[in-house]
Structures are given as structure tokens and as C-alpha cells.
Amino acid sequence: MNLFQEYGISFEYPDDWELSKEVNETSGEIQVSVSGGDSSFWMISVFIVEISAEVLLNRALDIFREEYDELDVYEKTIKLAGKDCLGRDIEFVCSELINSAYLRTFETELFTAFVLYQGTDQDLQESLKDLEAISESLDCFDSGFDEYLKIV
Questions:
Q1: 29 and 51 in contact (C-beta within 8 Å)?
Q2: Contact at 8 Å (CB) between 117 and 82?
């Protein structure tokens, strides 16, 4: 497993997965994603600007609803990085394939995080345990971390 540790977050991901990151200073968003060789990917967006977890989750759901005519949404209660999350599992059809996406949002004293992982149901048979392991390994620095702003 590889370890990513920047921007106040850390997580482990499989050695053979590719990592990418993007910083958008205008929107105050830092996005880090990892993907395997199939349709599956895991992504976290860290928002340094003030935005609530509920607003982020609703925006993401609106985007999925605009893109896909039929969308099944299931409410989930879960913890990530020791934080209570607002969560939704969604199912939709894209290119005649059933897809599943897992949306999670939570707030810290320093930022609001949005986690998304998804793939086709066929690919998720192999990759879902990796995606969930990445989520379970997620950790974040809270207000006690004085050096946070230096690494952003």
C-alpha cells in the first residue's frame, strides 16, 4: 500500500493505483483521487472555504440528478476519519451499465471534506473492498495541528 499525506489528510491506497491531485485556489478546493485499471475510483475534495457538509452533499446529488434520468438514492450513516458523515449510496445506469456511487461529507474545524467513490457494479465486485479500505484508512488533522496552513 502507498501512503498519501498532504493538505491535512492522509490515506492508504493500493500500490498499482494511480494518484492525481489538483488545487483550485479560486474555489478553495483541493482534490485528490486514486484510480485502478477499471472504472473504479476514489476521490476526496477538501474545501478550505466555509461550506457545510449538507450543502456539498446536496450539490453532488443535484449533479447526479441532472446527469441521470433514473437515480436510486439510499441514506447512510457512517464515520470517516473519526467524524460523523452525511452519506448517500446511489445507483444509476450509464452506457447500459449499472453503476454505484458512494457520497460522504464531513466537517472539521479546518475544512469540509467530500468523499466520492464509484464504479460499474461489475468492476465493484473486485474493487469495492479496496475503495472501502481507502475510506477506512482516511485520517485528517483537526484544529490542534498548527502546521496545517503551511502544508496547504
A1: no
A2: no
Q: Are 96 and 41 in contact (CB under 8 A)?
A: no
Residue type, 106: F
Residue 70 lies in a domain: yes
pLDDT at residue number 144: 52
pLDDT in tens, 128-140: 999 999 999 999 9
Q: At 134, which amino acid appears?
A: I
Range of the domain at 139: 2-143
Show the cell assigned to 149: 496552513
Which pLDDT does position 57 carry in this prediction?
A: 97
Q: How many domains does the chain have?
A: 1
Positive or negative, the CA dihedral 114, 43, 131, 143 is: negative
